[in-house]
């Protein structure tokens, strides 16, 4: 399985793959917060915001295409 | 400056299998040997809209040297960072799947280097009408890639000097020792427009090569799913994981 971009989130990510349904959502939350921290650390959270801002109009048009 | 490239393709696999393959396409080099340049994959969010029943997923991939080497050579190290580690791109992938209506729309865009080149790939996967389902099912996909170089237009915005951007392009740089001065000099030597066009067309050529490989990778996963089903694929993924742990 592919790695997480942050080493410290890898175990949580791997765990999700083998977890049953109940464990899964708990693990995903833990993984998610681990990932958010890693994204912030690398400044990717800002890039994400930029991309979303850049693309708000596009999204509306694109996702509205199929109704 | 925008360059657009559109292609159509039909997979000879049913829509549910193709959507599964889309999400598994980077999961292991054993499954997809064309994905060895993908360093990591993370899911930022994933939820089903209770109203529409659509699955919304956002993922971030880290890919090795997605920026074509020819472009890297073209640019001064002040822009590219120079080091090999910097030659990786973060790709944001957003997708929406509607199983009931039988379509999946995806969008992938680079997060870094956007000042040099922004590549946005949009795909629309559609299950053909019911009549075709009897024959085993196929899936149509339209891929549209938009290349845009804003080199010299927005690079200063990205560097955090939005107000100076307009002024800097109008007036010649006075401070030649600064980074900005170097970039301006370099750009005006070649002509920003020409460089933008070159970057867009180089990237477009490279992407057309890549699209064939990405399709080939999808096809290998689809074949595996056909042969062994999802359980077989998950087994293989587990084996690959254990093997990589052994190696560590």
Question: How many strands of chain A?
Answer: 0
- Count helical runs of chain B: 8
Overall pLDDT metric of chain B: 78
Overall number of structural domains of chain B: 1
Gyration radius from CA atoms of chain B, angstroms:
21 Å
Radius of gyration of chain A: 16 Å
Helix content of chain B: 40-55%
Subunit arrangement of the protein: heterodimer
Describe what this molecule looks like in 3D.
The complex is a heterodimer of chains A (67) and B (248). Helix content of chain A is 73%, strand content 0%. Chain A is an all-alpha fold. In chain A, helix 1 (10-18) packs antiparallel against helix 2 (21-41). Chain B has a 7-stranded antiparallel sheet. The radius of gyration of chain B is 21 Å and the shape is globular. Mean pLDDT of chain B is 78; it is low at 161-179. In chain B, helix 1 packs across helix 8. Chain B has helices at 15-24, 69-74, 77-80, 130-133, 155-158, 164-170, 179-190, 192-247, and strands at 3-11, 38-48, 55-64, 88-98, 103-110, 118-126, 139-148. Chain B has one domain: Alpha-D-Glucose-1,6-Bisphosphate, Chain A, domain 4, CATH 3.30.530.20. The longest helix of chain B has 56 residues, at 192-247. Chain B has 248 residues and is of the alpha+beta class. Helix content of chain B is 42%, strand content 27%. In chain B, a hairpin with a 4-residue loop joins strand 4 (88-98) and strand 5 (103-110). The A-B interface holds A 1-6, 9, 13-14, 17-18, 28, 32, 35, 39, 44, 47-48, 50-51, 55, 62-63, 65-66 and B 26-28, 35, 38-45, 60, 62, 90, 92, 96, 98, 101, 103, 105, 107, 109, 111-112, 114, 122, 124, 237-238, 240-241. Chain B: Pfam families: PRELI. Chain B: Residues 162-178 have a biased composition (Low complexity). Chain B: InterPro entries: PRELI/MSF1_dom, Slowmo/Ups.
Outline:
By secondary structure, chain A is mostly helical. Chain A has helices at 10-18, 21-41, 44-54, 56-63. Chains A and B meet through helix 1, helix 2 and helix 3 of A and strand 2, strand 4, strand 5 and helix 8 of B.
